[in-house]
Amino acid sequence: MTYSEFRYLWQVGRLASGGAVRLRDVTNAMTVSKVSVFRAVERLERAGYVDKSRDRKIRLTEKGQKILEEYRYAMRCLQERLLAPLGFAEDRAEEEAMRLVSALSEKGRKQIASAWQGVAER
């Protein structure tokens, strides 16, 4: 998943909170054009990460929830173990962690997420 796609998926997950979210809400939260959101959602839908209803509400699929959770674990690890100790502000650390996680190979991301999940569950 590209950094751009991840940003959209992240916003959908954040705004939907287990339910559905309108395209307009994603547009407003990200301050991007409706066309940009529409295209990104189409890509995420083709990948199986979101479902879009007739009323243009977007919902994470099980696959989308699973991948988002994996990315979140990897992000938390990078934020807390790498970026925070280097003095990054919280909002900047989140943005940089998103970029780093998106650049990782799937294997690398899964390994970091798995390790951090183990730490979080202790």
UniProtKB/TrEMBL annotation:
Any matching Pfam family: MarR_2
GO molecular function: DNA-binding transcription factor activity; transition metal ion binding
Family matches, as InterPro entries: DtxR_MntR_Metal-Reg, HTH_MarR-typ, Iron_dep_repressor, WH-like_DNA-bd_sf, WH_DNA-bd_sf
HTH marR-type domain mapped to chain residues: 1-91
PANTHER family noted in UniProt: IRON (METAL) DEPENDENT REPRESSOR, DTXR FAMILY (PTHR33238), IRON-DEPENDENT TRANSCRIPTIONAL REGULATOR (PTHR33238:SF7)
Name by which UniProt lists this protein: Metal-dependent transcriptional regulator
